[in-house]
């Protein structure tokens, strides 16, 4: 039977077998200490930057590793000749320029067919002068463009008072950790060693020294662009006159910021761009190679590599807390002695990772709140994640529901206190900070990516509402719960969906929100629920699955655009409808049938398409774990509701 014809779930015993095979495969993928950590893949930019970082520093050339990275980069080259931001996506200039530069550095001949196709695609789209600000900074470090091609960001920013319109406390955690060491690099302007003498002048339609204007982000308002552009020109003209005393104080402040948050072998911010910038900052400041800070910064980058038999790439970060918490939820949904034991082993691994003793950057906005969250990565104490924390808490609470032995209650209470403390004034939650809504900053030249902030979003807010509801809050008794629900209801789109900031996209946002609204006590007949159900049923693909890709984030988006079905997005669709009380809906049956028909022999699902988001329109993610636990979660819930006494989902997620 093909997926297109599978419109009814297979019989009960076949469903049980599907669940058992998937559950066994997921359990087998746990690490020896109980946790899960799956690959986290982005686009070509991260492995390309890894190669260029090594040559920038004149590290010994690892021909075997570079050869494997080259295989990976060639494999993901798009049919259009360049490199996309997600599987089968459109040409992206910055990803293409970096991938071409890295392959040329590795040794690929510029006249090789794949390099020629890439060069032609880049020139056809206006040439390398049309790259984004982060790529321009890399090109300036390599001497490919003049530094005037990068927005002026003087390191004296570190000395600005908090009331100033621009301050590092006003931007997101990822912006902060990437920018602070980059300020030092932009000020001291080191040049790449580049021992091989590789350059990419052939990618410019206009010689770099003749380029007078660099592109801005599509989201940026022309009037604000003009205003901030004038400020940029003024800063550039005045910077040579800045006194040396304050400059060196600012450099020292930036160095101290990085060192305090260096985060051991997990790296600054536990994200690749910040790690690389911190390493290069120490280099330009003359910190010896055997200094522990340099050693840690370099090791943190190496730990992101995924090296296989025939190819290799570098991850943007790792996701063990997120993967483990979601895997635990999945196994708890499956149920059974072995599944529950494995889930508790995962939760036992998670428990000591709770951050209880570090007041991170979030405390600038909430100084009186005690720490109590979990980070996304193995360690990132200054930047715990609200979303991860809520998902861990709901799993911990669920794992001992109805039992007298509740070993996680103190941790749950402390996490709840922290999550409640980070609620924003509008009732929603951001991922890492509260009230990070300085939207004018997304129009400065440095913010052409449009992702400088961390405002409240529906998906994170929904997770927090789900957590509070599962812990016993109600709309009637909890002002925080009511504010959260009111925020979510106000965020519903005209077509009935919700925007998904961290997952792709409206399917993810709608899944997150309907789980929360159901947990909060809204009835299936509530208008918001009905509108969401109607939208989701209307966009189901003919094969019974659901799909959505990165094009849904474009600024002129006018409604759902058809995309191929994926296992994880189909699972979200099925879970969403069941959260709305629709376990008996034909669309649910068709979604379940799609998942059964597309299950592999190993019990899991293949998924090459990207279904998660780093920064809308700029950076997307492929969680290799999503196709391993979300489909199983959906199948198990379908079975449980179909055979249970209640057709209403009783948990927060």
Automatic annotation (TrEMBL):
Q: Which UniProt keywords apply?
A: Isomerase, Repeat
Membrane-spanning intervals of the chain:
none
CDD domains per the record?
A: SQCY_1 (cd02892)
InterPro entries, from UniProt? Hopene-cyclase, SQ_cyclase_C, SQ_cyclase_N, Squalene_cyclase, Terpene_synthase_CS, Terpenoid_cyclase/PrenylTrfase
In which family does this protein belong, per the annotation? Belongs to the terpene cyclase/mutase family.
Span of domain Squalene cyclase C-terminal? 318-640
Mind telling me what this protein is named? Squalene--hopene cyclase
Q: In which pathway does it act?
A: Secondary metabolite biosynthesis; hopanoid biosynthesis
Q: Which NCBIfam families match?
A: hopene_cyclase, squalene_cyclas
One Gene Ontology term, aspect cellular component: lipid droplet
Give me any GO biological process, just one: triterpenoid biosynthetic process
In what residue span(s) does the Squalene cyclase N-terminal domain sit? 19-309
GO MF annotation terms: intramolecular transferase activity
